[in-house]
Amino acid sequence: MKNTLLLFLLLIVNNAIAQISDFEATDFTVADNVAQLYKGSDLDNLQLLAYNLTFKLPTDAEKFRAIYTWVCNNIKGDSYQHEKVSRKRKKLKNDSQAYLQWNNKYKKTVYKKLYEDKKTMCTGYAYLIKELCFFANIDCKIIDGYGRSTKSNIETLNKPNHSWNAVKLHNKWYLSDATWSSGYMIGEGFFLNDYNDGYFLTEPILFAKNHFPLEKKWLLNETLIQSDFIASPLVYGETFKHKIIPVSPEKMDFTIQNETEITFSFKRLKNNTEDKISLVHFSGSNEHTYKIQDLKTEDGITSFKHQFNRKGFYDVHLKINNDIVATYTIEVTKS
Fold first, then answer.
1. What is the dihedral of CA 37, 41, 44, 50, to 10 degrees?
2. Residue 164, beta-bridge partner list
3. What is the mean pLDDT of each run of 10 residues along the chain (335 residues)?
4. Cα–Cα distance between 314 and 230 in angstroms, integer?
5. Which of 302, 249, 240 is nearest to 271 (CA)?
6. What's the pLDDT score for residue 251?
7. Quick one: CA torsion of 53, 55, 60, 65, rounded to 10 degrees?
8. Which value, to the nearest 10 degrees, does the dihedral of the CA atoms of residues 155, 236, 36, 22 take?
9. What is the CATH number of domain 19-231?
10. Across the strands, what pairs with 145?
11. Same CATH fold assignment for domains 19-231 and 244-333
12. What is the model's pTM?
């Protein structure tokens, strides 16, 4: 009886695992067009906005898509808010309670700025997605945790610095990040809208490459621990656009002896055998390409090899076409 119950529970868990392939047959064109139709709508009546974005769409997946793309393309990132929170987080790094109290009060400012100017930070993006989903009768939650980028949580986890959403579709939970889908800052706080579809209903194993939730259950089917999260290769928005998962080396920082051959590999979540694969490093603004060998793709895994013959420190980057998708720092010692 116990074995039967265990098998039943395992089947429930396995059937509830979110997969990107769940939506391969879903055409989101109509949902995207609806979001475009209501471009520029204000936030004075969220219930009306949610209705306009969803009432013509037949499935919750399409409704969520319309909500998601509308938010990503109509709300701008606010560098002022982001920098203010970052400074306060740094100032109160040894007083979590004081920071939490300040942050809870500052959320009122975040929401006011969102409604009045359509400018916000991650908290506002996640909040707006959740509110619109509520009016569309879609179960959606705000997930708080750590976002890993070139500027934060590289070698150790600091205070939680990011928020995203979990949404329930067809009795399964999926993960999405409207903040990082929407675009990025360039220059002196100028926000460039550059929609990145890779953060929409992302495969959990890929999402966990730069998102670590405070509640581990929101890793979904991933059994990741904090030490492995911060040790893994650094990934970028382009990694999500190409939908690839770095496989080896498993760590960003590692040491090898000279004349050691290293295998680099990654898993593809979408088929594209015409991609140009390269391994590069930079000297100032100059890019240098390493010679790679045994490039092949088998069972969705692309791999190649490179041998480092000189000792020293190397920042190396995996590129797909013109995009950097993973970074490693390697110390090569004399054998």
1. 20
2. 143
3. 40 49 89 97 96 97 98 91 77 73 77 89 94 98 94 83 95 96 83 94 95 94 86 96 94 92 92 85 89 92 92 93 95 89
4. 19
5. 302
6. 95
7. -20
8. -90
9. 3.10.620
10. 162, 213
11. no
12. 0.89
Between CA 138 and CA 49 the distance in angstroms is 14
CA dist 240 → 47, 78, 187, 237, 245 (Å): 31, 23, 23, 5, 9
Contact between residue 123 and residue 107 where contact means Cβ atoms under 8 Å apart: yes
CATH code for the structural domain at 244-333: 2.60.40.10
Q: What is the pLDDT at residue 15?
A: 42
One-letter amino acid for residue 268 of the chain: R
Contact 88, 99 (CB under 8 A): yes
d(CA 270, CA 292): 23
The residue assigned the tokens 């890019």 is 287
Residue 243: DSSP 8-state: T
Decide: 174 and 133 in contact? Cβ < 8 Å: no
Burial 206-236 (b: 16+ CB within 10 A, else e): bbbbbbbbeeeebbbebebeeeebbebbbbb
Q: Residue 28: what pLDDT? A: 97
Do the Cβ atoms of 41 and 52 come closer than 8 Å?
A: yes
What integer pLDDT is reported at residue 66 of this predicted model? Answer: 98
Q: How many CA atoms lie within 13 A of 125 on its CB side?
A: 30
**Cα atoms in the Cβ-side hemisphere of radius 13 Å centred on 301:** 11
Q: Which tokens go with 34?
A: 């609806």
What are the structural domain ranges in the chain? Answer: 19-231, 244-333
